[in-house]
User: Fold these one by one.
Assistant:
Number 1:
Amino acid sequence: MDGGTSVTTPPSVSVAEHALFLDVDGTLLDIADTPDAVAASAELCAVLKRLEPRLSGALALVSGRPIADIDAIFTPLRLAVAGLHGLERRDAAHHIHHARSDGGLDDIKATLQTFVEGHDGALLEDKRVSLALHYRQAPGAEADARELAQSLIAERDDLHMLAGKMVFEIKPIHVDKGVAIDRFMEEPPFAGRIPIFVGDDVTDEDGFSAVNARDGVSIRVGPRTQTNARHRIVNVRSVIEWLANIM
Ligand SMILES: [Mg+2]
């Protein structure tokens, strides 16, 4: 961690170039005594509602709460959101993506098994921690195998696919707020923009690292502390004022 470079001036935001990722509790909302006692103010909802179209939809909430909680807090807004630190995610097109904390592959294995039984020469290798679909002996099955493997991971944010020599391998990855931001950044309307992430807590550090790796802007809310974030905003009130002033 690198607390030494943190600066206190919030960066200027270009609505044409940036994508905005915002933690919720402690960033947009003051921490409540009981977590279910919080609700977004009309002012905050109005700011977010105005910002989303100005950013061409490149605005997402990234929270430890479930998506259902977030929707209740920000009702009637339905924003792109990662909930449960990325274990569930609603993209900008409102498609839901899930990750499993155990990275389980059983359901995917069953589908791949059915595929190899229907394609002579195709072979499924169960490596315990990953699944490899080989088509060396079934080169005509490549397109179908690729399409199947991609469709199986499309809604699972905890899996990725590696294309090897005549093989597609599906592997789990650990999901955190940084991975959730990376997933958004692979999709429209986020792709091609510069990410900004604002958070206040230890679980936001993965998000700061993810945006730093993309030459983005990392902002930690609160008093000076050891952090990967390169900018600082002093409190929730200042975050909302900063957002309200984005032209
Ligand atoms: Mg927070």
Number 2:
Amino acid sequence: MNTENLSVEDFAAWAASELEKVDLYYGHGSQDAQDEALWLASFIADFDYGDFEDGWNKVLTADQVKLGRELVENRIKTKKPLAYLINQIWFAGHRFYVDERVLVPRSHLGEWIVDCFEPWVNISRVSSILDLCCGGGSIGISAALYFDNADVDLADLSKPALEVCQHNIEAYELTQRVKTIHSDLFNNVHNCYDLILCNPPYVSHVNMAKLPQEYRYEPEMALVAGVEGLDSIATILNHCAQHLNDSGSLILEAGTAAPALEAALDQVPLNWMMSASGESVVLVISREELIEYQTKIAKLGL
Ligand SMILES: C[S@@+](CC[C@H](N)C(=O)[O-])C[C@H]1O[C@@H](n2cnc3c(N)ncnc32)[C@H](O)[C@@H]1O
């Protein structure tokens, strides 16, 4: 590659062609090699991912090209997700700091946070939110940014993850209304909320063994949840009603455990929210429904 007068566009084309030569997994913040090359190019050129109208024709300095080459080589050699190599991820239109203490944020919930979960949630009734299993805080912090009058608590069992979360809360200057709680699911959560958001671990042991190398850099406790992937979800569904206000709801990502959950709760009419990509792995359930179906939900185990 001729590194003289290289534009962002030229660099992105080169990076995509290099990434495409090898067997890499995408899905930790990018869709494919092209998408990842654009993200990487925007990072080295120091503009926001997506802001290509301004950034596309920028000419890169020699140092920027060197950094970009090193990142491409490193990504290929280690298969480490790009987010960890550059300590950033874009989620629901906002940038977050990430490192290997937390899962790389990619929850489906990001698709709906930007619209405050309408029509499932009435924004005027939401003044308190819990992000349970918060990791680096992308869901709860994004919720605080879109529900700009709500107080938001973020809970996780991992202290290292909560350190990253706190860093992100401070970066967005949200310390007045956003707080972390160190808690094993609801054990140390003492409040009730209008909205609980949760992207828990939901990978079954069998699926965990099949995941590509990229996932091996993520904390195992952020992914694995028992034989069917339902261990955390079962406890959450069983205890959630106690932590919701009267008209409150839980929005829960079940991911690859969605079919097992659907089968285990076949007597319960679960309301799956369909994503733009056609996936139905996030469910919305009200406090009333959690109480109405509690006997059936209890069969999931505690
Ligand atoms: C799938 S990750 C989601 C992280 C973040 N919400 C996101 O979407 O990027 C699951 C999170 O649950 C946390 N976790 C695992 N077991 C937990 C437990 N028993 N209580 C609270 N958090 C737990 C992990 O530390 C991890 O941060």
Number 3:
Amino acid sequence: MTPTIHPTLAADKWGRARALSCALDEGFEPLMVQVMGLPNLNGMSHNFHMALGALGLVKPFDWMKWDVPALTKEMVPTLDDDTAWRHVTRVVRSERFFEGNFDAHIRNGSLTALLRHLYILRCTENGRPLNFPMFSDGSVEPGLRLVGFSQGTIGHTTGRHEVCAQPDCSRWSVELEVHNGLRQYWCSDNWHYVQGAEELFILQSWSHRKSRRTRPTRK
Ligand SMILES: [Zn+2]
């Protein structure tokens, strides 16, 4: 179930890591209902591991003496940059001593959420991706292409943007015109802008659907 990541998106370090974080979350949740054993994360977990390293989020420090509670998904929104990369480093480094620790933090959604949180801390300002072209009057560049994993170009930006209307989200949402002429706002949670290509790439299939969906429980 290794996802196909568009080569342009895969060549962008944050784009690759964000795409993998979304794919791991989406690929994992439907498998939760499996009765027998834990789902197999296959090579995606390894690729995510590599992507975290490529971003320089695994750095030397004395993590064994770092006495803070284990990373949980719930604490992620409260973490500052310094604490966040230390958590990444501790999860990655401790795998050597506690086998399965890395995958466990993917299964509980904490590490993937932490990567996306770090992206917001480092690469956005007031919800706007910092590399996104904006004119002095506050409008965005029209005509930037929205690209899907395999569908090719799906639509383009109209120049309008708004604050995302979803609850608990204050990120940028840009208006896109898709091929049938329909216009809709897409939250920047769901796409990644690659500057050199001047294209937005879709990261996940359903806008905010995951965050509102409750995890299936077995009775
Ligand atoms: Zn949003």
Number 4:
Amino acid sequence: MPELPEVETVKETLKRKVLGKEIKDVKVIYSKIIENMDGDEFSQKLVGERINDITRRGKWLVFHLDHYCLLSHLRMEGKYFLKNISDEITKHQHVVFNFTDDTSLRYADTRKFGRMYLVPKSELESAKPFQELGLEPWDKRLNHQYLKEIYKSKRLPIKTVILDQGIITGIGNIYADEILFLSGINPFTPCNELAEKDLDNIIKNTRKTLEKAISEGGTTIRSYTSDEGVTGLFQNNLYVHCRANEKCLKCHSIIEKTRIGGRGTYYCPNCQKKRDES
Ligand SMILES: [Zn+2]
């Protein structure tokens, strides 16, 4: 599943490819992708709209048009391809945006889990997908007081809580493991037992990890051509995630795999000791 850095990379790539283009017509082939209206209404509203900007909120891409904002979530397999209008529409291309310059942005999704919303510009902030999103990792309001206030009433493992998009948005399973490793925090630790210093470390390492991943993604994406699709997925150098039974890069202990809240979780039992052991 694309995580925040991949979505950020897709956003930057799309900006280079489609900013300023005007929509001539839209074909919705699989209408369940459109969450809040039917395919015909979606298509009609988009004719003549220009793509003025593309931003990201959580893992949602936001296309800023003249009168509307188009929200797009890639979920598991969603990808965008820039083609020419005359190119054949292939099996997995479900939404086709044709532009007045005869290029065509295709939303492809082999598993069809991706979703789009179209909302009037004035209703962007109150759009349904955004109502339950927490703070962005770089939001100035994200500090240890904010986390402490929310965490104090919960006894869930930090690994589960750090994935809660309603608290901090954009941390997926891969980066959650990396952030906790860098912070030296055992993933089972109940979140209400963390000290202010731990919370500061979580915030600092969230930003550091995501920034590093974004910069690596940005490097890889330059080699992408429109034929390969814009997925933003890239190989990252990870400390613990998916490295079970390998040696910790810091202390050479063996990385362990467990499950927390149903999610595969990787950690170093030495660098991330349980609190009663340290
Ligand atoms: Zn270690």
